[in-house]
Design goal:
Elements (H helix, E strand, L loop, with lengths): L10 H6 L4 H13 L8 H8 L3 H13 L3 E4 L2 E4 L2 H11 L2 H17 L2 E8 L2 E8 L14 E2 L5 H9 L5 H5 L15 H14 L2 E4 L6 E9 L5 E10 L8 H18 L10
Antiparallel strand pairs: 1-2, 3-4, 3-8, 4-5, 6-7, 7-8
Helix pairs in contact: 3-4, 6-10, 7-9
Length: 271
């Protein structure tokens, strides 16, 4: 049996030679399903990913059989197997384990829900949440992938990690409008990110959910790159604009604690 040739110096280029097209298509389908809790019809999946409908149906049949997808009232959604896999993945995330006691302290200080997000597939993946004692909560749950342009943690990654990739990630077209406050023009988002860079924290001013304000601060790894973002989420009635400086200071202190725990001692590197 002929052995594969050794990988070249460029890992990405080398790995492309070993890609299985329909396995990659299945991965793309699962990522798409993760963007909409209401699921998608097969024809919608095929159209959005530019796949033949017959290929899409075959992939979906396989994903269903293995528990990675399920069909509900004619629409496909993520399957139950991913709950177990997701929990196993989160349990093994070193940064999550280091963040949990810090999130607990932050929630105790602010009496609001705090969360940790890491960059994932050009989105912000929520990996840990410490709930507020308030009965009404609006924070996303662990495993949720938030869009970059309208979430506080996503804006942190756009500002401090993906700055040089702004045109690639955002493009020239209008962005998805989630609320009346969502920044949908690349130019206005760019101005908001510059403000984030200057003050050191980002804001989601009712841009993802009406009546909800979020604030986030970057977390740095030992090499100075942004590894995560810590944020708090609260109803605007409890988090008015007047409290932004107070909450920003507390979130910044929490992010600094986690950065130190990750070995960060030097100067940040911003991409």
């Amino acid at each position: 049996m002929k052995r594969p040739t050794p990988l070249a110096d460029d890992p990405q280029q080398s790995l492309e030679r070993y890609v299985i097209p329909n396995l990659r298509n299945a991965c793309a389908i699962m990522k798409l399903l993760g963007t909409n809790p209401n699921g998608f019809k097969a024809a919608d999946i095929a159209r959005q990913l530019d796949l033949p409908v017959t290929t899409t149906l075959r992939i979906m049949a396989t994903l269903q059989l293995e528990g990675y997808a399920r069909k509900v009232e004619g629409r496909f959604e993520l399957g139950p197997v991913l709950i177990h896999l997701g929990n196993a993945s989160l349990a093994g995330t070193e940064i999550r384990e280091a963040a949990i006691p810090i999130l607990q302290q932050l929630t105790a200080a602010t009496v609001e829900t705090s969360h940790l997000a890491i960059p994932c597939d050009d989105r912000a993946l929520i990996v840990a949440v410490q709930d507020s004692p308030h009965p009404l909560r609006a924070a996303s749950r662990p495993g949720y992938l938030a869009e970059l342009h309208c979430s506080s943690t996503g804006k942190i990654f756009l500002t401090f990690l993906y700055h040089s990739r702004f045109a690639e990630l955002i493009g020239k077209n209008d962005l998805v409008r989630r609320t009346a406050h969502t920044l949908t023009k690349p130019a206005e988002l760019k101005r908001d990110l510059e403000l984030t860079r200057k003050r050191g924290y980002s804001l989601d001013n009712e841009e993802y959910h009406p009546g909800v304000r979020c604030l986030a601060v970057p977390v740095y790894s030992s090499d100075g790159t942004v590894a995560a973002a810590i944020g708090i989420t609260a109803a605007t009635v409890r988090f008015p604009k007047e409290r932004i400086p107070e909450f920003a200071a507390m979130v910044a202190a929490a992010a600094a604690d986690l950065s130190r725990n990750l070995g960060f001692t030097g100067k940040p590197k911003h991409g």
